[in-house]
Each structure stands twice: as C-alpha cells, then as structure tokens.
Amino acid sequence: MAIEEMEELIRALGSQLRWAAELEAPSPLDVPGILLVVGMGGSGISGDLVAALASVPVVVHKSYGLPAWATARPPNVLALSYSGNTEETLSAVEVADELGLRIAVVTSGGRLGDLAAQKQWPAVFVPGGLQPRAALGYMFGSLLRLVENSVDLKTGDLLAAADLVDQITGGLGIELAADLAARLRDRIPIVYGSTGLTGAVAQRWKTQINENGKWPAWFAALPELDHNEIVSFSSLAAVTRRHLGIVSLRDDGENERIASRFRHTATLTGDDVPWVGEVWSQGVSPLERMMSLCAMGDLFSLELARTVAIDPMPVPEIEDLKQLLAEEPQ
Q1: What distance in Å separates the CA atoms of residue 135 and residue 44, rounded to the nearest whole number?
Q2: Closest to 213 measured CA to CA, from 3, 16, 17
Q3: Which end of the chain has fewer CB atoms within 10 angstroms, the N or the C?
Q4: Strand arrangement, sheet containing 123-125
C-alpha cells in the first residue's frame, strides 16, 4: 500500500502545478538586486529550481541565520517551509526580521505561517498534510508565482508543464523509470546534470532517491565535474565498475560545449564506471523541460523503492534527529 500511496502523490505533481497556476497569489514581488531563498530539504529545492530559471540573482541559503553578506547587501528574503516549523528556516527569518529585510513566505502553516500573519508579510499558504518532498508542485509553483516578474514565465507555462507531467507520471515515463531502476539495482546512482536547468534537477533526483528509495546517491554538474570528479574512478575501478552507475540528465537547450563534454566524459570514464542511462527533457519552455525531468526523477526513485520492497513514505532518521535536537537545551 505504501508504494501505491507514494505513486499517487507523484502523480499529483501536475494537479499541484495547476493549483499554483490558478491561485490568487500576492502581487508578484519587485525584486531588484538579490533574491535570497531560505529553505531546507523538500521545501528548499524549489529555490534551486527557481534560481536556474530566474533573470535576477537568486541565492539559496540552507542553514541557520543569514549569509554574512546580507547585512552589507540587503536581499529580499523568501522563506520556504512546507511544515512552517523548520528550525533553520525560522532562524533565518528571525535574523532577516531583525535586519528589517523584506520577507515573503510559502508554507502550509506552522510557526512560519503564524509569523507571516502577524507581521503581514506576503504569503502563499499551500495545502497541508503531505511529506514536503511530495509537495513540490505547491511549493515551487507558489514560489514561481511570487517572483514571476523575474522569471521568463509566460501565460500558460505552468498549465502546459502540468499537462506534460500528467502524461509522464500517468504512463509515459513509467517504463523508462523501471528500466533505469533495474539497471541500477545494487548500485549507487550518480546523477549528472549541467549548470542551470539540469543541474538543479539532478539535485532533486538525488534527494528523492535518498528519501523515497532509502538509497545512497550523489549528484554533480558539468562542466565543474570535469575539473575534478572525472579523475576519481580509476583507483578503485574494481569497486566503481561493480557498485556505481551514472545517469545523465540532458536538455536540448544545453550549451553545445556541454554536449561535447557529456560525450567525452562518458568515453574517458566509461571503462571505470558504467553510464547506465540518459534521460532527455521534454516540452518546449524551460519550465516544461525542467518539470519533465523532475517527474522522471520522482518515478525513478519510486521504482528503486519497489525493487527492494521498501516503504517510501517514512523517513524515521530525519524525524528521530528532529526529536533529539528538540530535547537539547536551546
């Protein structure tokens, strides 16, 4: 039942994007200068995705407080916490409020929702009751609506992305996801994207593999990995050939030199680590292409869970850690 429950949540990505397209959000923010997105985990990834699409500088902060530069170069702060109770995000918001920075919020409620209501910050309240990782359409779509003046977001892009995601999660991507999972059974996935659109999605793939599959993974992005990681497989080649597998995320909009780098990097490392699959984005707009790859990553993570018959829903170590921290004196 747990596999089926997560499968239904993954299939809801399209309807969540549709909800965001149709919501009456606060007026889009005018964001001259830097936009600082604060958020963790399944909430914070929305900031990474928006940063790949935005036409203004977007920095994603995933820790306590604010970066040191925020005092000298005051940013607009966008706080993302699905639960509204993420302690790192609340810490960042507290400092931002003390500094008098402009703050906007996306949440389902909790302490962050209370603060937004008390202080009358611009806010989008999304439907609650989900795992944060299963609320991407709500969180990412709402963030897009808040900063849509700073993203190349055309009328209908969210709806078009929703329709495409429905096709992928409704059947178009299931066979590919199952095939990839079969190739990576008993292997640790390495997800390669490139700076920008597919790099941000590669991070989403990694975290979904971790949480849904309870499976180790890492991600990296071209061209940076060609300056370090490309040389890392030869010393333990007997191990990496047997226990690792690279999945590359590709996009028709990628730089021509990136395409060449993918080709040459696979050739140079292929004897020491298998390149098990290549997943190309679908759709026309950058948003459609990004969401198509996110949907494929969600399906893939679920298929990994299915291969080992593990429940993708609970994340006990995360919850236990929160409890241990809560028990410590502040």
Answers
A1: 11
A2: 3
A3: C
A4: 58-61, 35-38, 76-81, 103-107, 123-125
- 322 an active-site residue? yes
Confidence of residue 1 (pLDDT cuts 50, 70, 90): low
Residue-wise pLDDT tens digits, 99-117: 999 999 999 999 999 999 9
- Span 256-300, pLDDT tens digits: 999 999 999 999 999 999 999 999 999 999 999 999 999 999 999
pLDDT at 213: 97
Known active-site residue 211? yes
Domain boundaries, the chain: 2-152, 159-307
**Average pLDDT over every residue of 135-154:** 90
- Point out the catalytic residue in the list 7, 211, 254, 303: 211
- Return the H-helix or E-strand segment holding 222: strand 218-222
pTM, two decimals, is 0.96
Within this chain, domains 2-152 and 159-307 share the same CATH topology: yes
When the pLDDT of each residue in the chain is averaged and rounded to a whole number, the result is 95
Q: Give me the catalytic one of 24, 227, 327, 328.
A: 227
CATH class name, domain 159-307: alpha beta
Q: Could you tell me the fold of the domain covering 2-152?
A: Rossmann fold (3.40.50)
Structure tokens belonging to residue 67 = 């970066």
5 is catalytic: no
